[in-house]
What we know:
The protein is of the alpha/beta class. The chain is built from nine helices and 18 strands. Helix 3 crosses helix 5. The N and C termini lie far apart (52 Å).
Amino acid sequence: MAAIEIENLKKSFRIYADRGQSLKEKLLSAERRRYQKRTVLDGISLTVEPGEAIGLVGKNGCGKSTLLKLMSRILYPDSGSVRLNGRVSSLIELGAGFHPDMTGRENIFTNASIFGLTHQEIEARLDEIIAFSEMQDFIDTPVRTYSSGMYMRLAFSVAIHVGADILLIDEILAVGDAAFQAKCFERLMEIKASGTTIVIVSHSMAQLERICDRTIWIENGKIRMEGAPNEVHPKYLEDMGKRRQLSPSAAAKQEAAEPAESPAKWKDICLLNEQGEKIDKFRTGDTVILQLTYEADPAQAEEALVGLALYRADKALCYGTNTQRERMQPLRLQKRGVIQCKFAPMNLVAGTYWFDVGLRRMDMFAYDYAAQAVRFTVYDPIDETGVTRLDHTWEIR
């Protein structure tokens, strides 16, 4: 049985130009009753399996949050059906059930009860909720005295401790400081590993690639593309980059327009050993150089960044980074250039892997993206499991 089944889902809203606020205004002015009907979702169908994590991407207003609200039954569809099998926890509007004059502790009981927990269940999880939120010093003070970050921490902690079968998340992963964000990601990965189904809306491709098995790109109320994150994200980012360069009228005709020739492209991508020889297999612990050769038109190409993503044969993301994240200077593109990224040592355990490599403008517009640019095999006589070998020594007494 699927965790989520959505079939031919449609949802529209009425947009009033000047809606009357009182009964008198509504009765006396026909103009105030005029509205436009805006279709936000137009025939969405998808199935999410138990334990699967999917990400929803798309430009603002495409219907991502509306779809989540329909799943959580905050809204109801005009037609079509939404079936969810199991308890649902929604992180759509954090703290929607919080009262500003109540303490954090009191709000935990109120908010958790909205998710369907009994008083006894909340009591049993109270200490864990408070500890995860790191709000021990403020838990008995009114919520109105909290900063927005403190407020979101507590609400996030409540939502992830309700023991849900399905977790719906809408753009709330930037909670607290960097250390707390890392803890939230770890917790989400634990929740996923336990078999919870997760649906996430986010504009952060890195977040989705870390968590999701599948990405669904929504455009104009329809599913434009779905598949593995490393297949969907490059095309989505490229489309968004092109739209930013167009006027509103030209953007509306984007799909009919011929794609412009990119001013910068990859020419050759390969792996080298320490002797500069091309390789497609090596032993765990060897030094490996990823060499990227590009060609560009310096007159048209702006400063750029280089990104890479390392995937295992089962499409699991092992590592990802780019030159901007590592605070390197933007790349000034020449007519032809060579970029090398050296891994010394490359401590991957035995298996088959590949690199995706992107060349992007600083605003993330994609000049070129090479999916599965170079595939390689790692071998090792030691039968290790996981992704990477950690340097270690044994001492037995």
